[in-house]
Amino acid sequence: MKRAFFLTSTIFLLTAVPALSGCFVLGGADAEAVNACSSDEDCEGGGVCASVDGLQTCVGTKADLPGLILEVRPTAEANSGANTPYLVPFGGEGFVAQSSAGLVVDHDIALSHVVVSPIELFVDYDYKGCPVSPEGKLEADFTFYRDAQHAGLPDHEAKAVIQPGSTNAYSVEIPPGIYDVHVVPRAPENCPAPPPPPMYYRGIDLSQGGKIDLHLSAAPRVISGSIAFPEGKDLNGWSIEVVEPKHGIPVSRTQVLTVDPPFALFTTYNLEYYWDFSLESSPILRLRPPPDDPDAPKFFWQVASLSPLNPDSKNIQADLTLIDLDAVGRSVMSTVVDAHGAPVVATVSFRSLELSGNASNSAIYSAVVDTDTEGRFTALLPPGKYRVTTHPTFDLTKAVTTEDGFEVPADGDCVCGKGFTVRDKSVVSGEVVLPNGSPLSFGSASVFPSRTPARPYLSRSLLADAPASQPMSTPLGFVGEFSLLADPGLADLVVIPPPDSLYPWIANPQVKILVGQPFDFNTLVLPYPVVLRGEVRDPLGKIVPNATVRAWMPVTASGTQETVVIQIAEGATDFAGRYKLPLAPSLALSR
Fold first, then answer.
1. Which of 318, 312, 303 is nearest to 268 (CA)?
2. Average pLDDT, whole number, for the chain?
3. Most buried of the four, 253, 274, 370, 552, by CB within 10 Å?
4. Distance between CA atoms of 558 and 246, rounded to whole angstroms?
5. How far from each other are the two terminal CA atoms of the chain, in whole angstroms?
């Protein structure tokens, strides 16, 4: 029987949305779309008339925005912190306040960097490489990854630099916060021996800066063994490494495998790595094909499950067998049609849920094919069960559709005759009115995929994701109405009034859109805002002009206990470094 290895291709799905960049350019708004007043009597609907930077404006009297976080991102040309996303928690309970005179709150922002210096790596065990410095230090590369409090907040990464006049002491300037640190030691100069393996440190609190001394007090752990593979395919040129379980960042050197003799059906590996098994998770052993052979499987194993493991064990013998994926790919012939049986041109994605053989729990297979103009396609798939996601190519009224459990048997007649049906997108509709009941006829309404909780690397690698809803936007109509076509799934509705109107956004998170079922928001009342305003200065104390300022709110992701964020406002600092954010007094929740 012919034996074959099977590929793992990358499927590009929209799983997260970048920060919004504003609303549609709709031209100037009429006077009724500008929040202005001359007295409290003009603020029909629950506001009071207050001065906001010289303009009399209707504002709210109560704010309930617990956990509010501001993001300030200076431009790429800024003198300090260029293009760095600074996260500034509002502090305490967040923006939770009340005032019968109206809430116009001055909130200056002083962006800050903490200086982490010196950063030094000491070798305290009997390192078998070349002699280190008299202080017992090694050079290294240090990369810092910010650990944001809620999923969906912008990431930040920074690399340490060598201190002037030093060869093994480093410094980094970063916004204060909690960071993960990846350390890659370097061998001493002119040393042919390898350095110690990389290390990964999680959850270091760098809110105050200061120095970091990292000590290698014990020799690395070792995992080694053999890898058997099917006849007709070898692992020559493949790579194997140990990676940490959060991001998949290596915590060992990468070993490129060789097969000797050339016709052998196994190869060997030996990896040194650092990991603290007192933590709740295990590192991952990852086997990958060479870069010039992308049409091959990828394999993942939790190190702690490869043998009866004593947490204090320094050496693990793990012999691996890939023979279980020795199966012939089967030709799958099918069609994509709509609910009326008409052909649909689409891209069809397959992602394995369960492959045949004992290695099914450690390997993934994915493939992407395009239909012809008649909706027909042919794919080559190994036996197993799949999640099939169909993305219509041209007809934007058709929804991204998912089907779980599509089975490719190991034998029998051809895998053909089963078609995949795409449904129409669901209609999301409503109307937006001002606090006095007049329609908001300028601005836009949008639906965006809800952000999802962060998942560990192994889960992201081996488990198929549900497709995210696709972003859609539309201008508001003459009487404030909107109607959008949305894919099924969790989505955030965002209504953005015209810029400079001094009305707030409406942000409605985690809306569950069902296939074929309309979602009517009915009437959404645009509230009077509570206003944050102030001055932004950089870590050098200078004003920060033209910086983007965003407001984020944490929410509980539907069906979980995890928090994600939704963006609720966006503005910019002016030439004097001042910003002004009209905020909805609270989140709208319609689940």
1. 318
2. 86
3. 552
4. 22
5. 54
